Amino acid sequence: MRIGVLGTGVVGTTIAGKLRELGHDVLIGSRSAGDDAVPFADAAAHGELVFNCTNGNASLEALRSAGEDNLAGKVLVDVSNALDFSQGPPPIVGVSIEDSLGERIQRAFPEARVVKALNTVSANVMVDPGVIPGEHDVFVSGNDDEAKARVVELLESFGWPADRILDLGDITAARGQELYVAFWVRLMDVAGGATFNIHLVAG
Amino acid sequence: MRIGVLGTGVVGTTIAGKLRELGHDVLIGSRSAGDDAVPFADAAAHGELVFNCTNGNASLEALRSAGEDNLAGKVLVDVSNALDFSQGPPPIVGVSIEDSLGERIQRAFPEARVVKALNTVSANVMVDPGVIPGEHDVFVSGNDDEAKARVVELLESFGWPADRILDLGDITAARGQELYVAFWVRLMDVAGGATFNIHLVAG
């Protein structure tokens, strides 16, 4: 598949690397291009499916650079988190208790088919869940069921078992996925590093 | 132990019931008293340790009624969540991305030894973790290590295994514990009810 990956940070390069390993035709987009990256708009135009791996604080701006027309009708996998380190670690997480980046992106780009996914684990876990032993879970949300189904397929190709990919409903669930990261930054201390995840167990 | 439980909702009555079953001398406090309940101030004065199980939206007011002097020097276990159902379920959760009830309570009652705990599971799970099979976790945070140790002992008496009671650090971690509930309200749909929890797994 032709895929555009926006963002050249650890998340963007890790996801792009995995997608290429799986045989996809990937262009990485950045604000300034250069090296392995093309401008945001070129990467978005290239992709049948687009990953937003930009810094959450700049995601809306990055997506505007990518261009509304280049996102229209496409599955847009939003992996972003808004992290504010201005008061030092751990960061303040999220955009508001009443909103999320996932929802803001869907509102700003109504013709994109936004799926929030993968933002609840570190980059190495996203593309290789087997680095953590035992069962643990990844989450998707979005308004378009067919778009979610395509993201689920991609996650399965990354190694996520079908029964550990949990569909939380429409894009308003992105609020929970993003605010959970405020918990994640504290769980990290207990886990002894970023290579951890959670597993849902029901009674 | 003499324990005051503030709040006559499901959480307060469930915790008070369990504490009595374990042989503790419990008074339940409410705004209006009556039935099994005494005024907040009487329950707080009675307790060597106090549970805040009031509605998070009214917790600070309830604790002011309980009286600063009746809380000074005592372990105050804060189980509360701020849930706003005004826009219908699922509720908006939390007080802010930059603050928490746990922190607000500690700031308002600097001589109380606030420990945030148990707010991440439903009442039946709080007092009987065995209703969920397998390993799953509960979390404590607070500025006073001795206070946390006493709460950990109580949680163990509720049936929580020592290695599944995770200390997230100082009271600022309450932000993560409370914002996680925005995720919990969506996980509930996947879990098929409120009797579920999460288990931390590290790589």
Question: What's the short story on this structure?
Answer:
Chain A has helices at 10-21, 40-46, 59-66, 68-71, 101-108, 123-126, 145-158, 174-191; strands spanning 2-6, 25-30, 37-39, 49-52, 75-78, 83-84, 92-93, 113-117, 138-142, 165-167, 196-202.
Tell me about this structure.
The structure is a homodimer of 203-residue chains. Chain A has 203 residues and is α/β, with parallel strands linked by helices. Chain A is 37% helix and 23% strand. Chain A has helices spanning 10-21, 40-46, 59-66, 68-71, 101-108, 123-126, 145-158, 174-191, and strands at residues 2-6, 25-30, 37-39, 49-52, 75-78, 83-84, 92-93, 113-117, 138-142, 165-167, 196-202. Chain A has an 8-stranded mixed sheet with strand order 3-2-1-4-5-8-9-10, with helices on both faces. In chain A, strands 6-7 form a two-stranded antiparallel sheet. In chain A, helix 7 (145-158) links the parallel strand 9 (138-142) and strand 10 (165-167). Strand 11 (196-202) of chain A pairs antiparallel with strand 11 (196-202) of chain B.
